[in-house]
Model the fold of this input.
Amino acid sequence: MKSCRRYVSLASGALLLSFFLVFPAFAEEAAKQDPADSPTGVIFRWLNFLIVFGAIAYLIAKHGGAFFSANAKEISASIVEASAVKAEAERELAQAQAKTESLDRDLEKMREDAKQNWAAERERLRTSSVAEIEKINQSAVAEMAASERAAQQQLRHVAAALSVERAAALVTSRMNPEIRSKMFQSFLDKLERGVN
Done:
C-alpha cells in the first residue's frame, strides 16, 4: 500500500515537472503562429515525449517491480490458498464418494441379511406350523379317543342301569309275599349275626 502511494506521488511529481517544462513552450507558442512546424518545435516535441516517457519508465522500473512483486506474491498466496482449498474440497468429495459407496455396499449387505433373515424366519414359521399342526392332530386324536372312552363308559352305565332296572322289574314281577318275607327274615338274621 505504501509503494502504491509512493508511486502515485512520484507520478504526480513527474507530471508537475513535465508541466513546468512544457509551460514555457505553450507561452512561446501563443506568440508565434505555428512553432510546431519549425525544427525546434519538432525537437521539443520529441524531447517532451522522451522526458515524459523516461520519467514514467523510471518510476515503473524503480517502484513498479516492488509493486508488481508484492502483487505477484499476493496472487501467488491466493493461488496457494485456492489450491489448498481445492485439495481439501477434493479430499472431502473423495470421502463423500467413499461414504456413498460404503452406504451402497452396506445397503446391499442389509438387503442380503434381510433376505436371509426372512428365509430363516419363513423356514422357522413353516417348521413351527408343521409342529403345531402335528400337535393339534395328536390332541384331536387323543380327544377323540377320550370322547370314545367316555361314550363307551357312559354306554356301559346306561346298559348297567337298564340291566339293573330290568332285573329289578323281573325280580319284582316274580317275587310273591312269601318269598319277600323269607328274604326279609334272612336279612334280619344276617344283621343279628353281624351285631353279635
About this structure: The CA atoms of residues 92 and 192 lie 118 Å apart. The two ends are 149 Å apart (CA to CA).
